[in-house]
Specification:
The structure is a single chain. The chain is an alpha+beta fold. The protein folds into two domains: 52-250, 3-Layer(aba) Sandwich (Extracellular Endonuclease, Chain A); 257-310, no CATH class. It is 23% helix and 22% strand. It has helices spanning 2-27, 52-55, 152-155, 169-190, 257-261, 283-287, 300-305, and strands spanning 70-72, 91-93, 105-109, 144-148, 164-168, 194-201, 211-218, 227-233, 239-241, 248-250, 265-271, 276-278, 293-299, 309-310. A six-stranded antiparallel sheet has the order 1-8-7-6-3-2, covered by helices on one side. A four-stranded mixed sheet has the order 13-11-12-14. Strand 11 and strand 12 form a beta hairpin. It is globular, with a radius of gyration of 23 Å.
Length: 316
């Protein structure tokens, strides 16, 4: 009889522990330092983001570009610390370094910060490595764009030299723009704040960044609406870049078959938001939001002249 009571007690204790554990999961508070209410069932835990040396190790293990414009870093969780979580509006840009290069740009994106007027001219700014060069393999022919670290639609910055780097059209349109649009749409729809940080990554004394690290975290819902940490490659398919100087040349190994397909007519699926076109069988086309999807029958050349870029996933 005594043995039976002991076994029963053990079972009850185990059940109690399970219940307490579940309560801990579903009732846990927001990250330390965040006094904003949140749906904590899907809240993101940033409490481990304290070791700065560990945070910066991601770049050492970064894989070379392999066809995707951006790749997830740290399983998609940004490197913000709990102490950085705030609803206070701010906008910070690093001073240019001794080579004239931009550093980290950090802001708390909200409707108060977003622009209400038209975008101004930024042509007077020439970031490090800037060159005006054109290639026929690029949709609008221009290799380089003046890329905002914090996009104009998010903070209204125009010719701010601390916020503009020399970036390829591919980086600007394929890599960064989808994440900028994601943040802009979220803020416009919810009125919430999004911590947003973009860090250009320069190797050695290179004048052109190898890419940018982009982090986003929605404050009021603890990352339920926006939570990403991605690296976007500053590359241009079909072009080889000397990142030390900004010089470039056509990549002769780029598939010649692409040029052969330019004038032929095919069926494509267009994403009117990201300005990418896909094969109908592409997984990205099938996952696309219906409001952004359009169908097109015609030539690849026509699409690229209209500003569309081929999907790097299906290579249409």
């Amino acid at each position: 009889m005594k043995r039976k009571r002991t076994l029963t007690g053990a079972i009850c204790s185990a059940v109690l522990l399970v219940i307490l554990f579940c309560m801990g999961v579903f009732l846990q508070g927001p990250p330390d330092g965040n006094t904003v209410g949140a749906d904590t069932k899907t809240a993101k835990d940033l409490s481990g983001n304290r070791d700065q040396d560990q945070i910066h190790q991601w770049y050492e293990t970064l894989l070379p570009y392999a066809g995707e414009a951006s790749v997830s870093i740290n399983n998609g969780t940004p490197f913000f610390t709990p102490e950085e979580i705030t609803t206070e509006v701010f906008e910070n840009y690093s001073e240019l370094d001794s080579l004239g290069r931009c550093g980290m740009a950090f802001a708390n994106i909200c409707q108060e910060l977003m622009p209400t007027g038209e975008r101004g001219n930024i042509s007077r700014v020439k970031p490090t490595g800037w060159q005006t060069v054109q290639y026929d393999v690029i949709a609008d022919k221009h290799l380089y764009n003046r890329c905002h670290l914090i996009g104009y639609q998010l903070a209204g910055e125009n010719a701010n030299e601390k916020n503009l780097i020399t970036g390829t059209r591919y980086l600007n349109v394929e890599g960064m723009l989808p994440w900028e649009n994601l943040v802009a749409e979220y803020v416009e729809e919810t009125g919430n704040h999004v911590l947003y940080r973009v860090t250009p990554c320069f190797d050695g004394n290179n004048l052109v960044a190898s890419g940018v690290l982009m982090e986003g975290f929605s404050v009021e819902d603890n990352g339920e609406g926006i939570c990403f940490n991605v690296y976007c490659y500053n590359v241009q398919p079909g072009v080889m870049i000397d990142y030390e100087t900004g010089d470039s040349c056509l990549d002769e190994s780029w598939p010649a078959s692409t040029a052969d397909q330019e004038g032929k007519e095919y069926d494509y699926v267009l994403n009117v938001n990201t300005k990418k076109f896909h094969k109908p069988s592409c997984a990205s086309a099938q996952e696309m939001n219906a409001k952004n999807r359009e169908y097109f029958s015609g030539s690849r050349k026509t699409l690229m002249e209209d500003g569309y870029l081929p999907c790097s996933r299906c290579n249409p």
